[in-house]
């Protein structure tokens, strides 16, 4: 699906097109990403406040009570639920390269199917999806299942935090159908 008008209105900025006050920010992103700027960042550079929110909340999310693998479960579950191919590809790359997530877990997440090999992560994915679909109103039964799997009140709120970060990214990408960078293409659905 192409969105030529929205991509003209929302250019994906590069070091050559970004506002001067954001250039150093994008240079850092490029350096930290092995020499490329993810198109999501180029898109968010159209709004300095959106870019700052993404980077600030992303940093906070990396410090939450969930493990790195659990944080990726939340992000991929949200990306699949929200139909964001860019974020599925990006978080698949993170899950493979940084987290070393087992392939059977990663494929279940990408397909939106149960995680048969890890009951705790399956509970997390199910809870995350319910948070999204029910706008947080998951009910006592699902919350109790989440706690019985070993999660806490802090974990539940950290899922909401992760969903909020994913919502910003997923919806921004969906707004213009952000093209997936060549570096992320091997991880696309």
UniProtKB/TrEMBL annotation:
GO MF entry, a single one: peroxiredoxin activity
Residues spanning the membrane: none
Highest taxon, organism lineage: Bacteria
InterPro entries attached to this UniProt entry: AhpD-like (IPR029032), AhpD_core (IPR004675), CMD-like (IPR003779)
Domain Carboxymuconolactone decarboxylase-like, chain residue ranges per copy: 48-121
Name by which UniProt lists this protein: Carboxymuconolactone decarboxylase family protein
The organism of origin for this protein: Streptococcus suivaginalis
Origin organism lineage: Bacteria, Bacillati, Bacillota, Bacilli, Lactobacillales
């Amino acid at each position: 699906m192409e969105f030529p008008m929205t991509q003209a209105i929302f250019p994906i900025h590069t070091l050559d097109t970004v506002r001067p006050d954001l250039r150093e920010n994008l240079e850092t992103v490029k350096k930290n990403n092995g020499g490329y700027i993810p198109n999501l960042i180029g898109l968010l550079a159209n709004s300095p406040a959106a870019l700052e929110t993404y980077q600030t909340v992303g940093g906070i999310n990396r410090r939450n009570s969930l493990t790195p693998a659990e944080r990726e479960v939340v992000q991929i579950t949200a990306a699949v639920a929200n139909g964001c191919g860019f974020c599925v590809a990006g978080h698949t790359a993170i899950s493979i390269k940084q987290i070393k997530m087992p392939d059977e877990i990663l494929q279940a997440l990408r397909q939106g199917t149960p995680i048969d090999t890890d009951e705790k992560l399956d509970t997390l994915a199910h809870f995350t999806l319910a948070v999204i679909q029910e706008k947080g109103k998951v009910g006592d039964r699902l919350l109790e299942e989440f706690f019985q799997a070993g999660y806490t009140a802090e974990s539940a709120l950290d899922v909401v935090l992760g969903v909020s970060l994913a919502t910003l990214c997923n919806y921004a990408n969906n707004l213009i159908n952000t093209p997936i960078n060549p570096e992320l293409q091997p991880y696309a659905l």
